[in-house]
Amino acid sequence: MKKPMRNLIIILTSISLISCGKDFKIEKKDFDIVPYEGNEILIFESDKQDRDTIFIVGIENYSTPFGPMELFPDEHEIYSVKTKRTDPNYDRYLEGKSLIQLVAVEGGISIEFDIAMKRSWYYGKYTFGKSEFEKIPLTELNIKESNYKDVKIIESDGSYEERDNYAERFYWSVENGFLGLDRRDEKWRLIKKYVP
Length: 196
Known about the structure:
By secondary structure, the chain is mainly beta.
């Protein structure tokens, strides 16, 4: 074999080995972070005696490439809780939005929230590494006759606080999921969670 041809084969083999994409998967134990089966109905009430409903319409589990311009992009598994919920800006429902999703990344997972409901939208930090999320302390939250002892309070970083629908914080129960949020002038709380 001639030397230029051999060099070309070595170069092409090296490039293919270096540039092969990785396949990132969510570990089985990490699925426990998501406390939904995919068919729940969440009913909320505000301290202004208004009501709103979030419909969990399914869970999607798939892999997708990140870095589409790469020759061999990495594949990342995503586990996403899909909803039908009120548009925070208009009187209509939006479908296909994720309430919470797990994304497999190098070194573990990221946990991503998209918290919005009637006249309310949480704009603050919404993505957490697993260890970062686990470090958020647990506290208690009483809602009517229910006492939740495993609640993480996620405070906004002040992003878009000038907006009318700005939510200052939201409440997440490790066992029960989204419990509500606080705006400056209105508080929403989960009053019923059921499977039809």
